[in-house]
């Protein structure tokens, strides 16, 4: 009696496990892990050949003033041959390195294999004197973040 | 006996699955995250459009020259919705105006509430209940020097497997004195949805 019951339970548990595995591989991952990498303060001058891991390369980070507003420029390169679907977000800081209350949204972008993208962000007001950029790779479920602070 | 056991176990499993299936969870999300719930016009599209328009306006050489000495007074007209979707485009222009006011480079007049303002001014200046010496004077409103207007259009294409939507948002700034177009910018967005084989 117990042997039969055990066989039946084993049979259904295999089915349930199979169903669970099937559902897990079909589901979409919408909560990526976050990995932050922060560079030291770099002053007003530009940063060259600043590399991320995972096949993403930041070749240049520049900060300058345009019409009294701080402007950030980031040159990003996809070192891999596959197309990458990424997201980026600028965060702005005042002279005391406090983040400004801003609503900079994550912006989706496509970087084709071996391709480059220039990301440009304009500060929300004249109190901003530095920025950081977050780059999120949803395919690899990781977030890379660097920091670039301008004039003090 | 075995059949009866089978039925009991099956019922037990279905009840367990049913309990998990009925569980619902409410939680707050990140309002700045990329939203891909459906292919329709969404919050990420709004944020991308507003960001591009404001960045372009603030870095345009002609606009920089315009804002170098003074804060120009702008009025925002309605943005025409040329798509087949129902989209609240006033929300897009509100976000753009919000960002431009925060930049402290422009001033705005708001026509969307002009009737209420007019009624209040009429009340203050005509009613016997209001001290006439303290009533807000009529005819002192600042006049807009530039008008902002635009449109949102879309192209939708689909087959049995894929649906593709292309949005184009265009915004213009015209000088009300000269009638000249002083600035124009557009933002293109392409979104695709493909039906997966498994249907998840």
What would a concise description of this structure say?
The complex is a heterodimer of chains A (152) and B (200). By secondary structure, chain A is of the alpha+beta class.
Unreliable stretches of chain A: 20-48
- What is the CATH third-level topology name of chain B? Rossmann fold
Radius of gyration of chain A: 23 Å
How would a textbook summarize the main sheet of chain A? Answer: 4 strands, antiparallel
- Give the strand line-up of the largest sheet of chain B: 2-1-3-4-5
How many domains in all of chain B? 1
Order of helices and strands of chain A: HEEEEEEEE
Structural class of chain A: alpha+beta
Q: How much helicity do the residues of chain B have?
A: 25-40%
Widest beta sheet: strand line-up of chain A? 1-2-3-6
Listing every helix as H and every strand as E from the N terminus to the C terminus, the arrangement of chain B reads: HHHEHEHEEE
Number of helical segments of chain B?
Answer: 5
Apparent shape of chain B = elongated
Mean pLDDT of chain B: 89
Beta-sheet strand percentage of chain A? 35-45%
CATH architecture of chain B: 3-Layer(aba) Sandwich
Taking the alpha carbons of the first and last residues of chain B, their distance comes to 39 Å
Could you tell me the mean pLDDT of chain A? 68
Strand count, sense and closure of the main sheet of chain B?
A: 5 strands, mixed
Q: From the 3D structure, determine the CATH topology of the domain at 47-149 in chain A.
A: Immunoglobulin-like
């Amino acid at each position: 009696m117990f042997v039969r019951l055990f066989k039946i339970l084993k049979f259904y548990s295999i089915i349930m496990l199979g169903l669970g595995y099937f559902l897990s591989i079909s589901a979409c991952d919408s909560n990526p892990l976050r990995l932050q990498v922060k560079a030291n303060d770099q002053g007003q001058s530009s940063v060259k050949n600043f590399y991320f891991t995972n096949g993403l390369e930041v070749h240049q980070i520049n900060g300058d003033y345009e019409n009294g507003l701080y402007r950030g420029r980031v040159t990003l390169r996809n070192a891999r041959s596959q197309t990458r679907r990424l997201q980026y977000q600028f965060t702005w800081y005042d002279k005391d390195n406090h983040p400004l209350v801003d609503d900079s949204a994550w912006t989706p972008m496509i970087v084709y294999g071996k391709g480059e993208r220039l990301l440009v962000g304009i500060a929300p007001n004249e109190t901003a004197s530095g920025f950081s950029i977050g780059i999120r790779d949803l395919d690899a479920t990781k977030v890379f973040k660097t920091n670039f602070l301008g004039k003090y | 006996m075995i059949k009866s056991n089978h039925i009991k176990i099956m019922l037990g499993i279905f009840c367990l699955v049913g309990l998990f299936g009925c569980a619902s969870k409410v939680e707050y999300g990140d309002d700045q995250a990329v939203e891909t719930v459906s292919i329709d016009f969404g919050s990420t599209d709004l944020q991308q459009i507003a960001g591009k328009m404001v960045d372009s306006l603030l870095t345009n050489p002609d606009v920089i020259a315009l804002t170098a000495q003074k804060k120009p007074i702008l009025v925002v007209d309605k943005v025409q919705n040329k798509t087949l979707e129902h989209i609240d485009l006033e929300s897009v222009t509100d976000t753009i105006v919000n960002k431009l006011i925060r930049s402290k480079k422009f001033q705005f007049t708001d026509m969307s509430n002009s009737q209420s303002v007019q009624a209040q001014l009429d009340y203050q200046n005509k009613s016997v209940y209001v001290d006439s010496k303290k009533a807000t004077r009529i005819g002192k409103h600042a006049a807009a020097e530039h008008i902002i207007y635009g449109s949102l259009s879309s192209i939708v294409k689909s087959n049995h497997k894929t649906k593709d939507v292309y949005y184009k948002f265009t915004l213009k700034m015209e000088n009300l004195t000269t009638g000249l177009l002083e600035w124009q910018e557009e933002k293109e967005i392409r979104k695709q949805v493909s039906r997966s084989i498994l249907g998840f």
